[in-house]
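dumping this here before i forget
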Amino acid sequence: MKKQLFDSPWLLGTLLLIALSVLGLIRFGFSRFERDSLPPDPIQEGKKLYVEMRCGYCHRLAGQGGTIGPALDDVGFRRTPEWMARHFRDPQKVSPLSQMAPLSLEGDQIRELTAFMNSLGGYGYTPLAPILFKEHCASCHQFHGLAPHSRLDLSTEGKFRDRDFIQDYIQDPQKLNPKAGMRGFQKFLTPAQLADLANYIYRQSR
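structure:
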């Protein structure tokens, strides 16, 4: 009787359809969980703060905004993330002639606004980028000769490689160089983290 039951093409087709549907729902659930569990992009969160706090009332960005404060289109090249964070907390201490009032922001908000400002002008990185470098790269690489000579110095990498190449190499070295001994980080870092780390390395030579 069991053999006849599973010999039915209609029944097998129905069971196969049910199994595929269940697998599809499970896959959708996992992908949604992974997507929802990703940390928020600090640059996008900082952009929201810029709008919510009406920074454009005093500053210009892409030709839009006020003229009380300086234009911010290239601030990511003119100022370091550390300078920006100090300036947001106490503008007059950093720039005595500044008319800007201290911002009432939490630590995470300061980091997010700094990340957005640092992205302006091209290839900005967040305050988390140096931490990513220390955790994932510093055992083999260094900047400006500050570590043992056995570590490959990346200080001038941005002069010889474009920024997209650096990100692609971090993500999958063997795709660009089959003989590369470095492991790829596409399974260990999110796309936003890969971009952040690539920007950080690229900017060291600027």
